[in-house]
Amino acid sequence: MRIGTTAPVVAVAAAAAAIANLPAASGMPHQQSLYNGYNGLAGPAAEFYDDSIPARVSHGVWSTLTSMFGQSHNPAQIIKTAPGVKMLDSGFPTADTDSIAAPRFVLYGDQDVAAQSYGAPPYWNITGFNVFNLAFWTVKFGVADNAAKFAAKSDADKKWFKSRYAGAGMKLMVSVFGATDTPQSMGRNATKLGKTIAAFVKQNGLDGVDVDYEEMDLFAQGKSANWLIELTRSLRAELPSPDYIITHAPVAPWFNKQMYPEGYAKIHAQVGNLIDWYNVQFYNQQNYDTCDELIWNSGDNFPLTSVFEINKYAGVPLDKIVVGKPAVAGDADNGFMRPSVLGGCLNVGVQNGWKAGAMFWEYPHMTPARLNVITSAAGLS
Q: Which family, according to UniProt (predicted)?
């Protein structure tokens, strides 16, 4: 912990103990100086609040605490440079890229949670996950749902929130489109759209974008691949790796080259190097609800689209195939697997060289406790 040098160390413990009894404080707003203040290093460095003081305290408590040390006008003194945290070119803090090395545990959030004013949960509510996708940015409806909640916050509020995620090794991203959006049907130019989405990502200090394209009819007609390839190239040109993440969330059948010659096998061949990983939807397909169908042999409905078949026949590296599942049975029409069963299935993959991780739709139904059951059984914890 780095507190002002004139404050006795013993006062820190006393202040922390007194936090629970502090009256409502008229705290200072989340000032930009919290992030721009000089931190004693030769050059700019990523900064975030010192987590030695419980993260759940209000900004008013932060203000009162700093006042106790005579630091009210020098808030940078209660900020530390954190290992594993850096700054994006947008000026927002982010976790180092090592934080999203496989296995990744990805959680989507579209459902409105009244007490969740930032659109995303506090980081301590999703322990074990390293990516949270705010849903959705759309063409048809604009910035919607939890993405809209986050975007509505001030820059200083967003930087404070991002600093918490960064310090916990978590990435905060936006998911675009979703099942009800029709960006291609609406005639949007993919290159221009990529620039627009990338601008939103940077303006809001987010760590990247998840492409959840679901225009099923166009995709079945073979009209989507080139559009998605163009979109991906545009996004990556604006959101360079490794600072920014680009993922796609296709349904598993779209990797079958025979059924979809203009599908995700083609997309991966063209721009797979620009996509960090795929949050593959192994649900809502009347399939993938047994270990064999999920891991080895997807069966007759959508052949050659299990994890290892996508790897073998579509050429996607195992470490880019993140297994997507509904958090609870009610989150999808089908494809749900109980946590212990799913974990056991994933362990078969782990024993054979797969460790990409898992994705879940959605928060708040998916919890750290459920994830722990899965990762423990899978051997990924």
A: Belongs to the glycosyl hydrolase 18 family.
CA dist 197 → 139, 202, 255, 320 (Å): 10, 9, 25, 23
Phi-psi region of 359 (alpha: psi -120 to 50; beta: other; left: phi over 0): beta
> What percent of the chain is predicted at pLDDT more than 90?
76
**pLDDT tens, residue by residue, 320-368:** 999 999 999 999 999 999 999 999 999 999 999 999 999 999 999 999 9
Closest CA to 113 of 104, 125, 124: 125
In the chain, where the domains are located: 9-81, 93-378
Q: Tokens representing 374? A: 């899965």
121-162 pLDDT, tens digit each: 999 999 999 999 999 999 999 999 999 999 999 999 999 999
Question: How far is the C-alpha of 47 from the C-alpha of 127, rounded, in Å?
Answer: 21
C-alpha span between 195 and 200 (Å, rounded):
9
- The verdict on whether omega for the bond into residue 136 sits within 30 degrees of 0, i.e. cis, is yes
Q: Which of 333, 341, 313 is nearest to 323 (CA)?
A: 341
Render the burial of 149-166: b for 16+ CB within 10 Å, e for the rest: bbbebebbbbbbbbbbbb
The fold adopted by the segment(s) 93-378 is TIM Barrel (3.20.20)
Q: Are 293 and 328 within 8 A, CB to CB?
A: no
